[in-house]
Amino acid sequence: MARKFNNKKGSILVMAVVMSFITVSLGMTFLSLAVTLHNQVTHEIALKQALYDCMAGAARGFSDLTTGRIERGAMQELYKDNFSGYKILGPTNDEGIWANYDKIVAYGRSNYLDSDINKEAIVGITPGEYWSDFAFIFNKMRDPVRGDIIYPFFGCDTVKGMVHFNDTLLMSFWGDNPIFTKRVSTSDISFHNFGNRSRFLGDLRYRPRIIFPDQATELRQNAGYNWGTLGHDSLTQLILSDSLIYMRKCGRVLVNGVYKIHCTPSTISESQVFAIPESKVIFINGKTWISASRGRIDFADGEYPQDSNTDGGFISNGFSGELTIGSADTMIIADNIIYKHSRSDFSIPFPSDSCNEVLGLISENYIMISRMVSDTTYVHAALAAVRGSITVEDIYWYQAPGWDNEKQSLNIWGSLAQRNQGIMHTHEPNYHLRGFIEKNYHYDERLPSNPPPHFPFVRDERINFIDERVSL
Fold first, then answer.
1. Is the predicted pLDDT of residue 324 greater than 70, yes or no?
2. Contact 308/260 with Cβ under 8 angstroms?
3. How far is CA 1 from CA 5, 6, 10, 12, 13, in A?
4. Residues 274/357/297/361 CA torsion (nearest 10 deg)
5. 3-state secondary structure (DSSP) of residue 152
6. Chain centroid offset of residue 375 CA
7. How far apart are the first and last CA of the chain?
8. Residue 43, SS3 per DSSP
9. 274 has which bridge partners?
């Protein structure tokens, strides 16, 4: 019995040793797995932190780029053991994939629990575009009343800003060689030039339609002042002088059997005066008259402005500041609109810091040049007719006495966007002439870097993630 017990005792000892070995092995395996898991988790955390650090660098670079505060972008501590930085690379020409982009190379670094992971990402910036970035935007090339095709450019024209046609690109066959110095685009795949030898110094390309909304929603939502009413005869007159806005109410009244525009108070000088609102936006519910005729008596002064071009005697200093004016109904340019710091010949210097004014005029209906303006008229503004056209007030008159009212020269420094191409001169019917013989459209080359406040977007500015690399 003792011998048998001793044999079993030896077996138990062996089993104990084996079990101990197994337990130690399992413990070592578990410890190894725990260490491996810890390292993997630490690595993943550090990797994600480096990614977020990298995106923080991209965001800082984007912010500095869009606000003009571009620094060296050196690595900076974002929070404990985490760092971010960036480098700005400028846009290439239109032949490369980076056309119309800026690039940001963003850096991120994480030292989480003594790890050291560096991450790098390339981010593309698609710049935002406003309507005012284009010298011309045309939705339809037909007169909305007569249905006639209107050819916007002729042989002697030189257009120094981008042009877009939602409609077929049309060039007049009269004359030769209109020159386009910047990009021309169309949403119609066909290009009809009718033998015209137009010169495209920029590129000619297809692009999606630029949408014309039914309302100027951005202006309605951001208006610092909301004036006027939607009544049929409601008219609000705005006269700009320096950074002040003179406002008075006008409407149609019957005087001795004749309807006239009557304004209260009787002169502009007696009108209410307002500063440019903080939002830099005014919206008028109803029709609008607007002018800023620097250096001479405003034609639209007086109790009955259309009776006399000198009644009242108000002289504007010209517009100074940044402002966009929207109108729910037709907007009439009642006289010159001139920037205070434009040149003596009313041209706008570029490049120059001497003229910082910018004005946007947006009508949800038509923008018209008044039939009361002088033979040579100047307009400094980015213009947009959301549902209508940019045209002349009496262009569709077919009877006396308004059907003979021809002017000499319309000079616009700014940009033009219109849903339907408007008529600016006509001889119908029977050679009764109205509108302007000469139309001189000059694109304000300051607009891409300084658009009018809350002007309509073609597209928002976007950040496009392109590539990422990890360095361990």
1. yes
2. no
3. 6, 9, 14, 17, 19
4. -70
5. coil
6. 32
7. 68
8. helix
9. 245
Residues in the chain: 472
Q: What is the C-alpha separation between 165 and 208, in angstroms, rounded?
A: 10
Q: Which residue has the tokens 């950040």?
A: 463
388 CB-contact burial (10 Å; exposed 0-12 / middle 13-18 / buried 19+): buried
pTM for the whole structure: 0.74
Of 228, 38, 222, 55, which Cα lies nearest the Cα of 115? 38
- Kindly give, in sequence order, each residue whose CB lies less than 8 Å from that of residue 189, ignoring residues fewer than 6 positions away: 206
Q: Which two tokens stand for residue 5?
A: 């017990």
Distance between CA 275 and CA 291 in Å, rounded?
16
**Residue 221 pLDDT level (bands cut at 50, 70, 90):** very high
pLDDT, tens digit (0-9, with 9 covering 90-100), for 193-202: 555 567 778 7
Residue with tokens 């006269």: 239
Q: CA-to-CA distance for 269 and 381, rounded, in angstroms?
A: 24
Burial (CB < 10 A; 0-12, 13-18, 19+), residue 187, is middle
Neighbouring C-alpha atoms within 13 Å toward the C-beta of 326: 27
